[in-house]
Write a structure and sequence with these properties.
Alpha-D-Glucose-1,6-Bisphosphate, Chain A, domain 4, 28% helix, ASHA1/2-like_C, globular, alpha+beta, START-like_dom_sf
């Protein structure tokens, strides 16, 4: 069964915010480790070099072949509840925000990408669905490599995000 897209596209002026959530039957500190510790990140998305305490690291995506290294600015790091970064890839800068909250042994991860061009949501949304599902697989004993982007995420989820982004624009 193919995954169902869960993300939302929220208008913010002429830009938008992409928002996705995932839940984990795990304490918040475990999920925090999965999104901040190099060895845990390597299982589902990539690795980093450098000292996070310096406010900047270099990130190397390992979930995609040939992806260039990216400079990552750590905008906020409040363990184990908030991580906000800016990723520099060529001339582009993406803001990524992760918030974690635990209730009754269940941790909810809310991922958002503010400042996104609404026209990009149809491509970016399926990508983050894919990476977050790889995270879920890594943290629940599954195999992240079994999560198939081309079969289940893109273009299968494109219309979901395209409809939401189109709803933000005034109709002609």
């Amino acid at each position: 069964m193919s995954p169902i897209p869960t993300g939302r596209v929220i208008g913010e002026g002429d830009r938008c915010r992409l928002v996705l959530t995932r839940t984990f039957q795990a304490p918040v500190r475990e999920v925090w480790a999965a999104v901040t510790e190099d060895a845990r990140l390597a299982r589902w998305i990539g690795t980093f070099t450098g000292d996070p305490a310096s406010g900047e690291v270099t990130f190397q995506m390992t979930a995609e072949d040939g992806a260039p290294a990216q400079q990552v600015e750590i905008r906020e790091c409040t363990p184990p509840h908030a991580l906000r970064v800016g990723i520099h890839a060529g001339s582009e800068r993406w803001l990524l925000d992760l918030e974690l909250a635990e209730a009754d042994g269940v941790t909810t991860l809310t991922f958002s990408q503010p400042g996104l061009d609404p026209a990009a949501a149809e491509n970016v949304g399926p990508g983050w669905e894919y990476y977050l599902d790889r995270l879920v697989a890594a943290e629940t004993g599954g195999e992240p490599a079994a999560v198939d982007f081309e079969r289940d995420y893109y273009p299968a989820m494109r219309d979901h995000y395209q409809r939401q982004a189109s709803a933000l624009s005034p109709q002609a």
